[in-house]
Write a structure and sequence with these properties.
The chain is of the alpha/beta class. It has helices spanning 4-15, 18-25, 29-43, 59-85, 99-104, 106-116, 129-138, 199-207, 221-229, 239-242, 268-271, 274-291, and strands spanning 48-51, 54-57, 91-97, 120-126, 143-148, 155-169, 179-181, 189-193, 213-218, 235-238, 249-255, 259-266. The strands form 3 sheets. Strands 3, 4, 5, 6, 7, 10, 11 and 12 form an 8-stranded mixed sheet that branches. Helix 1 (4-15) packs across helix 2 (18-25), helix 1 (4-15) crosses helix 3 and helix 6 (106-116) crosses helix 12. The longest helix has 27 residues, at 59-85. The radius of gyration is 22 Å and the shape is globular.
Length: 294
């Protein structure tokens, strides 16, 4: 089977552009367009819609992409297994991560892994909880960091408990208090992530039976911190996200206390990849060592 045509389709979908896909694949745009046209003729239906804004999957295209990605994943695993048998450390590991992990964990993990396995390529996709879970379900990543319990079917290894903390602007009436009462979120202007991404605060508030006074919503964690700095409201953030930062905000423990559990998720398909399994081992060891004060 000529799998390169499916690799071309996946790259076009990933980049949303025939031109960008051609650059990434090292060929001409006309060659990419020809490959897609041949695929559509072979399938008997259109898989992409083209416009000045780029390309998008059609409804039929959306239906076939999980199978296309699955085929490419199995092909990658075969290459890695053959390489492992021949004594070569080779392959690609695709990782989905949210901001705090991408900033505080992955640079160190990747540095150690690349030192030992320099021929393995690492691809990192950065998003929020919703993005990572979707990438895992679609097969776009081999490993993903999730909030446990995850909202998808996968094998998940809990890595660390991470406290949730309140962040307040300087001069706030609770600045002098030792801890921040969670119930105050009902009256204070509250700044939050978008609904599908705000698992941390939602779980803490729901567990306490509190309905927050939401004034602003955004997809970006650091935008929330900037808005709190300007006195636009308060918010709840994971401790790992705030680690090592010097923002002009007041950080307080919550009453009652709350936490999130960060986990590492992988699918059954991903577990068959030697490079993916080895990278997962490195992540687990890194988190253990960090917890012990490395």
């Amino acid at each position: 089977m000529n799998i390169s045509k499916y690799e071309t389709l996946a790259k076009v979908v990933e980049l949303g552009s025939l031109t960008k896909a051609a650059e990434a694949l090292g060929c001409t745009q006309s060659a990419v367009s020809h490959t897609i046209n041949n695929l559509e003729a072979e399938f008997g239906f259109a898989v992409l819609t083209r416009s000045r804004a780029g390309v998008k999957l059609t409804g039929d295209g959306e239906r076939i992409m999980p199978s296309v990605r699955g085929m490419l994943n199995y092909e990658e695993q075969l290459r890695q297994t053959v390489s492992a048998i021949r004594g070569l450390d080779f392959g690609t590991v695709r990782i989905g991560a949210f901001t705090s992990v991408a900033v505080h964990w992955l640079p160190g993990v990747i540095k150690e892994f690349q030192r030992d396995y320099p021929n393995v390529d690492i691809k990192l996709l950065n998003g929020d909880y919703y993005d990572v879970e979707r990438w895992i379900e679609e097969g776009s990543v081999d490993l993903g960091f999730v909030n446990v319990p995850a909202g998808i079917r996968c094998e998940c290894v809990p890595l660390m408990e991470d406290r949730l903390l309140a962040i307040l602007p300087h001069g706030h009436k609770f600045e002098s208090y030792p801890k921040f009462p969670l119930v105050e979120c009902e009256t204070e202007a509250f700044i939050t992530l978008l609904e599908e991404s705000n698992h941390d605060a939602n779980r803490a508030l729901a567990a306490a039976g509190i309905k927050p006074n939401i004034r602003f919503s955004t997809k970006d964690d650091y935008a929330i911190i900037a808005m709190v700095e300007k006195g636009l409201g308060i918010s709840i953030m994971p401790e790992l996200l705030l680690k090592g930062r010097h923002d002009d905000v007041v950080v307080k423990e919550l009453v009652p206390p709350s936490k999130r559990v960060i986990g590492l998720a992988m699918t059954e398909t991903s577990k068959n990849s030697p490079a993916t399994r080895r990278f997962a081992d490195y992540i687990i060891e890194w988190v253990k060592a960090s917890a012990n004060g490395r």
